[in-house]
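Progress note, sequence design subtask.
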């Protein structure tokens, strides 16, 4: 198998760093992503930045518009509702297939991912009102591990992409998972138990409720006019 070229390696590195900065809140929703600024900040070429932005667009974290260039995906209640509906339907199908097709190694990965999630502190040191980066990564890995038994690559990639889009909302919304009437850790534990026990109907119901509950909370706690706007929102595209 041939090794990636240096150009491909640079593009992958820029993609990784841009993705981390978007999900980490250093690049805010609606912020224009200008090639001169990105080339300077990431110390790379226009070609590497362009390839990274195209990939991020495909992942739903960046949007491209004619005559306006690239921006970090904006957030809105309507978009979140649409995203949650799509996730509920797609993840239900993928989880069902995963439970039907997954083997013992798949089960072991899910159990291990849940163990890491359970042991990871919820809040991070930099943003005490939001989930920390380590918890967010462990949370994503747990849910992806549950879906990983599905052998349909297209469905699995679609579910993964929708989940990545949802990460933006988790970062920019009011705290979730600490409400008085919600046991987030319990939800994850119950979901794992249903999956390992191959209780398909129960597991699908739990994941649907899990996604829908979080979406409802984010909509309730974050009015549309409080979603973040870029400091340079009114500047022309570069």
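Output:
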């Amino acid at each position: 198998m041939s090794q990636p070229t240096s150009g491909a390696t640079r593009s992958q590195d820029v993609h990784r760093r841009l993705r981390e900065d978007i999900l980490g809140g250093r690049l805010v929703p609606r912020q224009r992503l200008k090639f001169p600024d990105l080339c300077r900040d990431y110390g790379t070429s226009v070609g590497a930045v362009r390839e990274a932005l195209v990939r991020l667009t495909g992942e739903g974290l960046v949007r491209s518009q004619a005559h306006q260039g690239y921006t970090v995906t904006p957030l809105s209640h309507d978009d979140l509702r649409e995203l949650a509906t799509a996730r509920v339907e797609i993840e239900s199908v993928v989880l069902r297939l995963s439970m039907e097709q997954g083997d013992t190694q798949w089960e072991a990965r899910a159990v291990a991912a849940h163990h890491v999630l359970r042991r990871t502190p919820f809040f991070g040191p930099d943003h005490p009102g939001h989930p920390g980066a380590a918890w967010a990564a462990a949370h994503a890995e747990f849910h992806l591990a549950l879906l990983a038994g599905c052998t349909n690559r297209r469905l699995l990639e679609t579910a993964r992409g929708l989940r990545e889009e949802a990460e933006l909302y988790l970062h920019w919304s009011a705290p979730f998972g600490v409400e008085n009437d919600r046991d987030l850790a319990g939800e994850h534990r119950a979901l794992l138990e249903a999956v390992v026990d191959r209780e398909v109907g129960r597991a699908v119901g739990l994941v649907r409720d899990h996604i829908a509950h979080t979406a409802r909370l984010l909509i309730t706690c974050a009015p549309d006019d409080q979603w973040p706007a870029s400091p340079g929102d009114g500047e022309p595209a570069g």
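Residues 15 and 55 are 7 Å apart (CA to CA). Work on this subtask will continue into the next period as scheduled.
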